[in-house]
Hints:
Blueprint: E1 3-8, H1 14-29, E2 52-57, E3 68-69, H2 76-93, E4 101-107, E5 113-116, E6 127-133, E7 136-142, H3 158-171, E8 195-201, E9 206-211, H4 213-216, E10 217-221, E11 228-234, H5 239-247
The chain binds 2-oxoglutaric acid (AKG) and fe (ii) ion.
Amino acid sequence: MKCKLYHLHPEKRAFADDLFHQYQTDAQVSELFVRCRLQSSPHGHAQVNRHFAFNVGETYNYSSIPTTVPLEDSPPCVSVAKNEISNVVLRTLRCSVEFNQVLSVAYMEGMGMKFHSDGEVGLGDVVASLSLGSPARMSFRLRNKPGKGTFDHSAVTREEYEHWFDHACRLCRKSKPRVDEESSTPLQTELVCPTLFTVDIQHGDVFIMIGNTQRFYEHEIERVPGFRIAATCRRIEDVHAHANRTQS
Ligand SMILES: O=C(O)CCC(=O)C(=O)O
Ligand SMILES: [Fe+2]
């Protein structure tokens, strides 16, 4: 269940000041950020996200589907953010990641993002974000079901599941119910785990999540005290194209 997180602070914040300004200038030229309707809204009740979003590159279907433009039509702010994030990732992980999707999220005072994991099908191992403006607190907890959501359930092995289940029961102070040894689909138990730890992210910081982070943990952005923008880079493989290639 290993995952790794890197929290990086820039030596100088001037770059972040300029980029924060650039985002706001670009957002005036064309309307970038929209508050999207939640996909899981109950019928007839339009509910919108607790933040504004704008997507570039591959489509990203998380709790809602934000406006997406191709990478080559990126506004300058997004291209600059992507370059900076790619450079920090290269220096930190000593490997280059060809990010093909950048989700920019804008939060007004009091907005946040609920607990979720970045569960897009085909999501690569490295998710890296650059934070601008108001500070934010990111909380982590164990997912209530490993591999749930858009992941393929079979991506979680029985051994991994048992490991997660032990850990979750200990955290929730629940005694471990007996698990049917024969069951081939053990993903039945739901436990809501407490927050494990929080990270305070500042203007200009880059935060990198790698490994099993998305499969076993979820994160939230608590309600922010002021205006904030976060640009998150991901690599999303076209799993359907890949499946077709390997079949032929
Ligand atoms: O606002 C952030 O720093 C992270 C946002 C996030 O978790 C996401 O876009 O999935
Ligand atoms: Fe996320």
